[in-house]
Design goal:
Elements: H1 8-21, H2 33-40, H3 44-56, E1 60-63, E2 67-70, H4 75-96, H5 102-120, H6 124-139, H7 145-156, H8 170-190, H9 194-205
Antiparallel strand pairs: 1-2
Helix pairs in contact: 1-3, 4-7, 4-9, 5-6, 5-8, 8-9
Length: 216
């Protein structure tokens, strides 16, 4: 969440999102509100508020006689979201170009390096965190709050990350290719080409084939 102050509800929201991302809550599984209250040592109200927000964002569902469950998303669902996010992300990047500073570009280069380190050490949660920071640099500079909120809304629908088991090394290989795209995107920013930046994000970086591991 892009706020300086987080309410108790916001912290619960982040906690439940983390459980989903780490696979500790899986699709179709009922969310045990009492257990979350116990784990966080809080009352039921902020837990219920967080669940209502996640349901409004279409991450979970509130089903009659069952309660809140994690929504199941297949590859086709995620691919459709990628198509939408790619267009929005490309627009944000093109609008951000005139406002990016040298520090912004240096920070993006830094995150590319930390993502490389995360891949080498199989620290996929670190990769996930730093790739979000990488993209957020230019998204926050696009100058359109409605666009920023729209991108955030659609990204929140894709909470589950397939980073839990990489015994074959396939995920690391996919992440390496994706991080090469981050480097290519950075070079396009440096060339100050808004049309090419937008096209690269919508047609290449957010292509449907990346949806299998949700690496972006």
């Amino acid at each position: 969440m892009n706020t300086d102050f987080k309410s108790l509800k916001d912290h619960v929201y982040d906690y439940i999102a983390l459980l989903i991302r780490e696979g500790r809550l899986v699709a179709e599984e009922k969310i045990n509100e009492n257990q979350i209250c116990s784990e966080l040592n809080i009352s039921r109200t902020p837990v219920r508020e967080a669940l209502i927000q996640l349901a409004a964002e279409d991450v979970i569902e509130n089903r009659a006689r069952k309660g809140f469950v994690v929504k199941k998303m297949d590859a086709e669902d995620i691919a459709e979201l990628y198509e939408i996010i790619g267009c929005l992300d490309g627009l944000a990047a093109s609008k951000a170009l005139p406002h990016l500073s040298e520090k912004d570009l240096r920070d993006m280069a830094f995150y590319i390096e930390t993502m490389n380190l995360a891949i080498k050490t199989s620290n996929f949660e670190m990769y996930h965190e730093h790739q979000n920071l990488f993209h957020q640099i230019y998204i926050n500079k696009c100058g359109n709050k409605a666009l920023v909120e729209c991108i955030d809304k659609y990204k929140k629908k894709i909470l589950k990350k397939s980073y839990l088991d990489d015994s074959t090394g396939k995920i690391a290989a996919v992440l390496q290719e994706t991080n090469k795209e981050h480097l290519e995107l950075l070079e396009l920013f440096k060339k100050n080409d808004p049309d090419r930046v937008s096209e690269f994000l919508s047609q290449v970086h957010w292509r449907a084939s990346n949806a299998e591991y949700d690496t972006i």
